[in-house]
Design a protein that fits this description.
The structure holds two protein chains of two kinds.
Chain A: H1 3-17, H2 20-70, H3 78-91, E1 96-101, E2 104-107, E3 116-124, E4 134-142, H4 145-194, H5 209-277, H6 280-310, E5 319-322, H7 323-340, E6 344-349, E7 355-358, H8 360-376, E8 382-390, E9 397-404, H9 426-431, H10 438-448, E10 452-457, E11 463-470, E12 490-492
Parallel strand pairs in A: 6-8
Antiparallel strand pairs in A: 1-2, 1-4, 3-4, 5-7, 6-12, 8-9, 9-11, 10-11
Helix pairs in contact in A: 2-3, 2-4, 4-5, 5-6, 6-10, 7-8, 8-10
Chain B: H1 3-20, H2 23-39, H3 43-53, H4 75-93, H5 99-115, H6 119-127
Classes of the chains: A alpha+beta, B mainly alpha.
Amino acid sequence: MNNSDQSKFEFAQTSWRQSIAVKITAQIIWVIVPIVFISSIFLFNAIEKDQSQIFSYKIDALTHRVTSIIFNKVNITDEEKYTIINKIATELGFSAIEVVAPNYHLTTNISTEGYVPITRTLPITGTDDGFDNAFIVITSYHTPLYQIIDQKRKNLLAVILLCLVIFAVFLVVSIRKWLYRPLKSLVDATEAVANGNANVILDTDRKDEFGHLSTFFHHMIANLTEQHNKLRDTAKVASDANSAKSAFLANMSHELRTPLNAIIGYSEMMLDEAEEKNDKAYIEDLTKTIVAGKHLLHLINEVLDLSKIEAGKMETHASMIDIRDLLKEITSTLEPLVKQGDNTLKVEHDSSIISFRSDMTKVRQILLNLLGNACKFTENGVITLKVEQQGVEKNRNIVFTVMDTGIGIGQENLDLLFNPFTQEDNSSTRTYSGTGLGLSISQRLCNLLGGNITVRSAKGEGSCFTVTLPVDAGNSSTPALLDGSLPKISVAS
Amino acid sequence: MSEHTYRLVIGSLMLLMLYTGYHFVAYLIIAMTLVEGLTNQRLNLVVTSIRRKLGANVSGFDQTPREDSRISFDAERAQRLFIAIAFTAIFFAAPKELWILNWFFAFGMLISGIVMFCPVIALFRAIGFR
């Protein structure tokens, strides 16, 4: 037996022992067996009673017939009496007889060993031989009654148990054939389908429930296979279309950026010249052109980023990031935007963290995006950036929390917030500028860096975005922790 | 030798002995089950071990012990002790009155071998035996 056969054998043994078929068989048999035994007890009691009565009747019959023969008026010789009595005793199952009467004594020559003597004493009456008030004593030898009963019940019980064994074997074979095998075929087929093999063949010729089940199973597999193929084709078409879209957007963005950079560059040069000549009319127009151009460039960059991420072409470059440098850079970049909305920017920094390992550009982009949004949707409020550490040992994370006291987001729109090209509603798109790509890009960048982004908000109560990033995104070095204190950065504008 | 084969053989032998009246065989079986129960050197395990040493492929007969048992005592071992004690008690205490119980236990072993389910072991397992 090779390994494969052996494992099949083990599976077959185990599955049969643990199958529902064994439980059904065992339950039927173990209900029947005690019932049969209890019924047998009553049957054996009846048999014992019958046998006792039969035994008594035989002894009485023997005694009566022997007495009749001995005192028979017809002249028969002792030899003839002996022959007749011996014959009667044999017929009734007695092994030997001893008759003792006045002037008469008879003993048959059969062995008495192993037999029990049964004695009957009868008074002699109504004879002309002057034997009144005398007695005839007849001793017969017979197999003990308990032996007869014991043998009878043993034979009967053996027959009953043999029938039960035959019934049990029949039940096991039947249930195995009619229930277990088709059920196991279905289980095996289901297992095969679960493992991705749809080429299963079941017995659909049967006319019972298993036959119907097998037929429906085949129909189900055919439908599933068809749907699976359709889905696969559709997914391929969708994937191809998305790749084409991403490639198109990436190419177009690139093609748009090049002339746009040229426009902005030349506009800045012209602005410098206009400023030198103090030509106020040109300065105003050129400034507007540069601002519009930069805004357009920002939008194109966002589209390009999203396309890169969707096309799987966005790469990360992990390096050690100094938190203080990062925070200073962000706060200085955001300063004009904070002032623009008359807001206050507070930075709360856990002084024990000085650096972590991640992609500096992408972390900066995420934080600028979130803080930029906070500035955009808050007026005369407070925007807080909180940096802290969570977790222990290898699961340590750095958590950036951006909170604002702005307009907030309705609960019904929170789920859609990270979808591309989505802002809370159309009116807000009109009131507040933007493509709705910022949060989508931030979320995808977070995922790319091994972290995640969550949001809590309520309409009119501000928003709270939490970015969780692993302390060591590259797993190449452990960040150093600062023992000394770092002053909290608070930028008021 | 699996546990079921063991029950089949022992049950058949006991029934044969009860029918023929060779009590010597019964005493031998009782002694054997008692030794099995006391030492946990069960016949089927010994036979399987010998067969394995002789090179036979008997891995399918291994029994998996239950991990969640409350009592660290094999249910099969408890069954051997139960059988030995029950047979001894009936043989020597009330053979004429309780004769049918011997037949019941012997037939129970035989039938549990056929249907692969022993209620005594199931009971012991339900109590918490391994």
